[in-house]
């Protein structure tokens, strides 16, 4: 019951203010159509750099929690999901809005998000420490394979094209090799003074996530606005009373969300859609789904929020993110000197338990602020894309500069961002590339160390492929590739038919 | 990008070119110990690029350009002014100063991408007010609150 020991740390005025600010900003940013939750969390990371690690993580955790729930606002009001996780919510949520029940739909959304979110955090609290102990058995080769597995999983399961996902991860790894060789200290690929220090994680995070978003927003500017339905005068108490009777939808959503969350790379989109599909299949009135059935919203929203806590389980223990936003959160951990694994729960126990405990309080803030926004969120939909683009650009430049007071970082961020925008047009996603940049130094460090140890024994190759953990990790890496290839072939066949 | 006949094939060629360039940089005139890890990445990238090229060549025989690809195409002319503003911003920020250049870049985005005519004085006044307010809030939050010192340049 370690988590109870640090619960009091959350209730300082400063931390409560961060939770309030992070949740409000997360809900608003999540609700803005066209802004991804991953970008929102990436943009906030530099601001946490100047905070104590626990405070910084509290802000990031609150943002992560709230952006997932906030995406439902635009899904319901304008039928444009704020995040992929809210696709399933739009199916019935927008239909309810068309029937003049927009506020009621938003009430179901935030109440179910709260239930799902709390369930997910319970999984996080009880599953993370034992799994972290497993990481004690990891040597350099295991850590190398873990890094490769993390990139492979995000590159395959989390991407539309297996080969492009893997290549994006490799591009990220290539970018991470700019600068000093970790063992010999010699510089590599340094063709300008701006590249001497290599590419900082935050520079990559902001460049790869924020700048392409700015250009996409500019593309969208001037397009006719989506029709928005007015917020009605529904009472949240009435919605609450109805919501608590939908135990099946809540339980199904929470369980599916928790399971999907633990699977590395899966993310909220899959959780929401699977939960929606299952509740529809098991419903007595499946024909009502898609026509404004509250159970559809309840299952989808409890699932995508139940995913948040468990997506941190593989992240905090093995440095494998459960979702693209969790990959960004890994960058947040590393810039504060917190490396996933058993040390997190021993050396940094106070920081990490305070962070996990704060996620519970963040759920309460999300519920209260979300219910308030259920009647006052119409203005969010009216923010023009070019206003968002201008704000993100200035914040991205400031955030990048503030990390090391380096003008070179700003230029590198610009180059990476524009390159990523064009790469995204060719089908390459930013998440595997970011993970490549983040995990690249870990992979290379442990690869070189493993090679040295192996050469002193039975040979490097033998050292890298021996032992049950190495074999399991290699099998998991190959398995994730094989599964993704199989799934994409199956999908292609379906499309052809 | 919009005039290319087969986007998948184009992607494969771009990927191959980048993988080839990275391999050249990693292998040509470099020390094998220092560049060992980049060389492994380069080989993996080259292999995947070749696989992508082969699979897109096979796919191009089967199907024509898909609607999904069409949807992803960049509206380059629309983003060009934004790219130009961004480039000028990043180039001049260090010389002019962060807050001054941020004000101008913010205003430029609102002017160029706003719906109303640029000559409308009422709209112009509103955009200037929003830009000043945004930069002022940034100044209060970052310079005064977080004590982060951004480039001051000639002006501020």
Short description:
The complex is a heterodimer of chains A (497) and B (156). Chain A is mainly α.
N/C terminus separation of chain A: 54 Å
Q: Which stretches of chain A of 5+ consecutive residues score pLDDT under 50?
A: none
Secondary structure: number of strands of chain B: 0
Strands of chain A, total number: 2
**Which range does the strand content of chain B fall in?**
under 5%
Overall geometric form of chain A: globular
Q: Which percent band covers the strand fraction of chain A?
A: under 5%
Task: Please compute the radius of gyration of chain A using only Cα atoms.
Answer: 22 Å
Question: What is the rounded Rg of chain B?
Answer: 24 Å
User: How would you sum up the major sheet of chain B?
Assistant: none
**What structural category do the secondary elements of chain B indicate?**
mainly alpha
The computed structural class of chain A is mainly alpha
> Could you estimate the helical fraction of the residues of chain A in percent?
over 70%
Put simply, the count of helices of chain B is 6
Features:
heterodimer, A: 497 residues, two-stranded antiparallel sheet, 22 helices, 73% helix, globular, B: mainly alpha, 74% helix, flat
Q: What does the model show?
A:
The complex is a heterodimer of chains A (497) and B (156). With 497 residues, chain A is mainly alpha-helical. The longest helix of chain A is centred in the N-terminal third of the chain and has 33 residues, at 102-134. Chain A has 22 helices and 2 strands. Helix content of chain B is 74%, strand content 0%. Chain B has helices at 7-27, 36-62, 67-72, 76-96, 98-113, 121-145. Chain B is flat and about 55 Å long. Residues 65-71 of chain B have low confidence and may be disordered.
List the helices and strands and how they pair.
The complex is a heterodimer of chains A (497) and B (156).
Chain A: H1 2-5, H2 13-31, H3 37-48, H4 53-77, H5 87-98, H6 102-134, H7 140-156, H8 162-176, E1 179-180, E2 187-188, H9 201-220, H10 236-245, H11 247-262, H12 267-281, H13 294-306, H14 308-311, H15 313-318, H16 324-335, H17 349-376, H18 385-404, H19 407-425, H20 430-456, H21 460-464, H22 468-496
Antiparallel strand pairs in A: 1-2
Chain B: H1 7-27, H2 36-62, H3 67-72, H4 76-96, H5 98-113, H6 121-145
Helix pairs in contact in B: 1-2, 4-5, 5-6
